[in-house]
Amino acid sequence: MTGTQHVFNQIQSSDSGEYYCEAQNEMGTDRSRTINMDVKYGPKNTSVSVSPSGEIVEGSSVTLTCSSDANPPVDKYTWYFQNKTFLNGFGQMYNISNFKSKDNGHYHCEAWNGRGSRNSTALMIILQEKQTSGIIVVVLVVILWLFCFMWFRKSTGESPS
């Protein structure tokens, strides 16, 4: 850039950094001292992640983490379940130590700093149903088959080997 001044028409967070100017004429070149420009902004790109990712099993521990880009850094997080604030959800991480079906639903967080706040999009967490019904059916079919086989052998006069 050339000229005696630089105007930022729309300052952005990416404009943060070190700046200096340089003056040059036929006698030589001189450089100003470096200044640091620190652009302050409210939270943005706020999101919720869940660990472990994937299948949530009843009784397992689930940790939700709220992340947000902000300058100054986020100083307050608020957690919401089904769009209602929950009393013990005020840190960057929220832990559910014994996940049950009553914990199924939408979770989101709100990040705050001195410049404003931003909500994350909602994250749906659903407890995986235990797959015991399929196992029970298989076991019952095997028992029924064995019973029928034994009954058939007994009724035809054959003794089981």
TrEMBL record:
GO CC annotations, alphabetized: membrane
Annotated keywords: Membrane, Transmembrane, Transmembrane helix
Keyword Membrane assigned: yes
KW Metal-binding (keyword) present: no
Start and end residues of each Ig-like domain: 43-125
Name of the protein: Ig-like domain-containing protein
Membrane-spanning segments: 134-152
